[in-house]
Amino acid sequence: MPKSIPNPENLVAAKDAKAPVKRSLTPRRRAREYALQGVYQSLVMRRAGSIPNGAAIAKQLSEDPAFRRCQLDLFQGIFDGVLTKTDELEAIITPALDRPINELSPVEHAALLIGAYELAADLSVPYKVAINEAVELAKTFGGTDGHKYVNGVLDLLAQKLRSVEIQAG
Questions:
Q1: From CA 35, how far away is CA 27, in angstroms rounded?
Q2: Is 10 left (phi over 0), alpha (psi -120 to 50) or beta?
Q3: Residue 167: burial class (beta carbons within 10 Å; 0-12, 13-18, 19+)
Q4: pLDDT at position 25, please?
Q5: Is the pTM of this model over 0.90?
Q6: In this structure, are residues 147 and 138 in contact, taking their beta carbons and an 8 Å threshold?
Q7: What's the gap between Cα 108 and its chain centre?
Q8: On the CB side of 63, how many CA atoms lie within 13 Å of its CA?
């Protein structure tokens, strides 16, 4: 029996079909994901005119069974740091934006706050890691091309906040 010739349309479809990407959920990545969820909730509450309660948000997040597998001190550092310094971080971010900060999606806004926090306040995290982690958060939870925007903004911020580290290579 002769071999059948594959339909070229099926080859293109199979080639373009994306298999689900397995995410690496290390305790550190998981901590950042929970921090993003908490910052997101805080931003949504602020936009609705409410005053966010960080302790209540953190308590709610900690009730998720998977939360125990995150690096708790990293989660607390990022989440508390972003909530405490939101206005200061937004002041750092705003000059790098091409639109008003309140027009950003809450996911990209939260990812930018986390990235800016790590760039500005946690020098133990290399700038490339801070940017990459924020971009991965935006890829996972944000819109189609939101991660590209987050990457561009954080690259600009890194040049300002971590110029010595960048020049050192």
A1: 12
A2: alpha
A3: exposed
A4: 87
A5: no
A6: yes
A7: 7
A8: 6
Residue 1 is given by DSSP the state -
Query: Rounded to an integer, what distance in angstroms lies between the CA atom of residue 140 and that of residue 91?
Result: 26
Kindly report the average pLDDT of the chain as a whole number. Answer: 89
- Evaluate if residue 159 carries a pLDDT over 80: yes
Q: For residue 82, what are its two tokens? A: 């972003």
One-letter identity of residue 77: G
Burial class (CB in 10 A: 0-12, 13-18, 19+), 24: exposed
Which amino acid belongs to residue 10?
A: N
* Token pair 């597998």: residue: 69
With 0-12 / 13-18 / 19 or more C-beta atoms within 10 angstroms meaning exposed / middle / buried, residue 138 is buried
CA 100 distance to own-chain centroid: 19
- Cα–Cα dist 83/78, whole Å: 8
